[in-house]
Amino acid sequence: MRYACIISKYLIVNKHSSFLNLLPHEIELLMEKFGPCDVIDKEERIPANFDPWNAEIALGSCVIVKDRDGKIVLIRQSVSRPDLDIEHWFFVCGKMETGESLEETGVREVYEEIGCVVRISGIHHVGHHYVMVGGNKHSIYYGAALVGDLVSGTPRVNSEEVSEVAAFTRLPENFAPQHRKYYPDLC
Fold it and tell me: Of 70, 102, 139, 145, which cross-links 131 as Cys (Cβ 3.0–4.6 Å)?
């Protein structure tokens, strides 16, 4: 993955610089298409013992899916992740596959997880976050929170990764707590 290599090199050379100093090309392309958005820099969460040689670096997308009534479609994962428990609601998200753009990643993930086709209509924000798995595996995820308008289909569980799908007028109280602060306009 070309962008992961660029990001990985950046982290090795200057892991304490701001994310603003490195916008992966895919994020730059999104901003050219949809206009500027908030950039969220969460590098303060990276511990001093972070080892870039032993880190997974990934790009991905989350999609704020709006249904035909303007409600926000959220999912519950069937398996807990390091940063998200199964009882929390969250957006459809996924890692970029080789050859995809962040926009294509979002469209694919929505179709795979809730069986709907969306048109990406904007960017909510871009940023990154740090996750430590099992005390020794470090991961840095760079990506975009995209806004997607429902084109076709009815949101439903369409993947073994998803246990439940529902639409909300605002983010529910049990929306992923560590991410809630980045979506005040949806609360």
Answer: 139
Whether 123 and 133 have beta carbons less than 8 Å apart is answered as: no
Orientation of helix 25-34 relative to helix 102-114, angle to 10°:
90
Q: What is the CATH superfamily name and number for domain 2-186?
A: Nucleoside Triphosphate Pyrophosphohydrolase (3.90.79.10)
Distance between CA 147 and CA 33 in Å, rounded?
Answer: 13
8: which residues sit within 8 A by CB, 6+ positions away? 52, 55, 57
Please state the rounded mean pLDDT for residues 47-67. 81
**Number of helices followed by number of strands (H, E) in the chain:** 4, 8
pTM of the model: 0.81
Q: Which comes out higher in pLDDT, residue 177 or 169?
A: 169
Q: What is the pLDDT of residues 132-157, one digit of tens each?
A: 655 666 677 778 999 999 999 999 99
